[in-house]
Design brief:
By secondary structure, the protein is α+β, with helices and mostly antiparallel strands. It has one domain: 2-Layer Sandwich (Beta-Lactamase), CATH 3.30.450.30. The protein is built from 3 helices and 5 strands, in the order αββαβββα. The longest helix is centred in the middle third of the chain and has 21 residues. The protein is globular. InterPro entries: LAMTOR2-like, Roadblock/LAMTOR2_dom. This is Roadblock/LAMTOR2 domain-containing protein.
Length: about 130
């Protein structure tokens, strides 16, 4: 599906734009729940495989809700927690980028860095 050069470029984009900005965990995954790339700042543990599977289900449920209300899709999801927040963004028709971050980072910065990362990933994949 992806060659080594593409995977390395995706890893570098995630590390530079997202982990470098202070985001705790990042998963680039397909909509089936398979993690393509996963990175962490090393400060907390996360079962990325289980998380990706659950995230795929969550995104599919929200996608079905979007269609019920007449939207073609909701391409961005955000869950705010007491300690961590989760930002889901659709990258391509069949991939998602999930970023988990703490209170020390603003949602605005996350959205900016995610947009930069998605742009770079799409460039790599085209």
């Amino acid at each position: 599906m992806y060659d080594t050069e593409q995977l390395n470029a995706i890893d570098n984009a995630i590390l530079e734009h997202l982990i470098g900005a202070g985001i705790d965990h990042v998963i680039f995954m397909d909509l089936s729940g398979n993690a393509i790339a996963k990175h962490s700042n090393g400060k907390t543990d996360l079962d990325a495989t289980s998380f990706a599977a659950l995230a795929a289900g969550n995104f599919a449920a929200v996608d079905a809700m979007a269609r019920l209300v007449g939207e073609s899709e909701f391409s961005l999801l955000f869950h705010k927690g007491e300690k961590l927040s989760i930002h889901f963004s659709k990258v391509t028709e069949d991939t998602l980028l999930i970023s988990m971050f703490g209170k020390n980072i603003s949602l605005g910065l996350v959205r900016l860095k995610v947009a930069e990362t998605i742009e770079e990933i799409n460039r790599v994949l085209s």
